[in-house]
Amino acid sequence: MSAHFRASRRHALAALLCTASLMALAPATADAQDSYPDKPVKLITNFPAGGPLDILGRALAVPLQSELKQPFVVDNRPGAGGNIGADVVAKAAPDGYTVLLSIDTPFTINPHVYPTMPFAEKDLKPLMIFSSSGLAFGVNPSVGAKTLPEFVEQAKKKEMSFSSAGNGSPGHLAAEIFGTATGAKILHVPYKGNAPAVTALLAGEVQAGILATPGLLPHIQAGKVKPLAVTGRQRAPLLPDVPTVGELGLPKMEFEVMYLAMVPAATPEPIVAKLQKAMAAALALPDVKQRLASLDMNALGETGKAATERLASAKARYGAVVKATGMKAE
Fold first, then answer.
1. Which stretch of DSSP H or E encloses residue 30?
2. Which residue among 52, 156, 246, 261 is the one 20 to 30 A from 27 at the CA level?
3. pTM higher than 0.85, yes or no?
4. Which fold has domain 134-253?
C-alpha cells in the first residue's frame, strides 16, 4: 500500500469522523434550543439596586418566570457607567442564560467618553427596548430657586454642584450643555447610579441633579426636591406643571433614557425569539403597564431593526454633544 494511498485513507476517515461529530452535535444543539430554558436565567443589571433599572428588572422577572417556567434572577453589577455589567454579559456563553438589563448609555454615550471600552458593539445585540423616560432637573429646597431662570441667576454668581448617575450619563451631558448654554458655573459630581445620586441631592451633598425622573418622583411628591424642568420633548404625565427644557429655551438639553435588554451576539435566534415573545407578553400585562406608568416610563417594546436604529440614532446625537462640550469620563 503506497504512502499516498494511506494518507488519502486517513484524510477520508478524518472527514467522516468530523461529519459524524457535527451530525451528533446538531440534534443536541437543537434540543438545547427547544428545551430553553431548563434552568434559571440571570438578569444582569449594570446599575445599583434601588434605581429605576433595578425596579424595572424586578417588575419583569416575575412575569418572565411565569411565561418561561424558570426563575429569572436579578443580579446587580454596577460600575464604570454600566460598562462592568455589560462586559459580564458580552463575555458570557451565548446560550440565553445571561441577559443584560441596561439603560442605553453604555452603547450610546460611553463609547464617546471612555478612552477604552471593555467590550465591542458587535459583542452584544438588543433583545428589546422596553421603555423610555425623561430626566428631571431638581434642586435641593435649600437652594431657594423656584424656577430654572432663578437658578441660572444664582449659578452665574456662585458655582452649583450637580449629581448625576455617573460619568457619561445623560444627566452629565445635560449638565454640561446647561453650563455652556447659560453661562452657569457648575461642578459635576458623578455617582454610581441614579439611586445614590438622588440620595446625595436629598442630603444636600449637592445643590442640584439632572436625574432619571422615576427615581426623583417620590421625593418631588414629598416636597424634598424642587423640580425646575424635565428633559423630555413633552411634559411628564406625573409632573404636568413642570416645564420642559424646550419650553425654557434649552432644546439641546432634551434627553430620554432607554431601558433595554441585550444578549451575547452569538445567541441562537430561536432563543432570542423565545425571550422576545416572553418580554412582549410581560409588557402587555396590566400590572406591568401600571408599573411603567408609575415610573413615568413610556412603553416601547421595540425589537430588531427598529431597536438597532433607535440606538444608532441616539449614539450619533450624543457623539455630537460630547464633541461640542469636550466632555470626558473623568
1. helix 3-35
2. 261
3. no
4. D-Maltodextrin-Binding Protein; domain 2 (3.40.190)
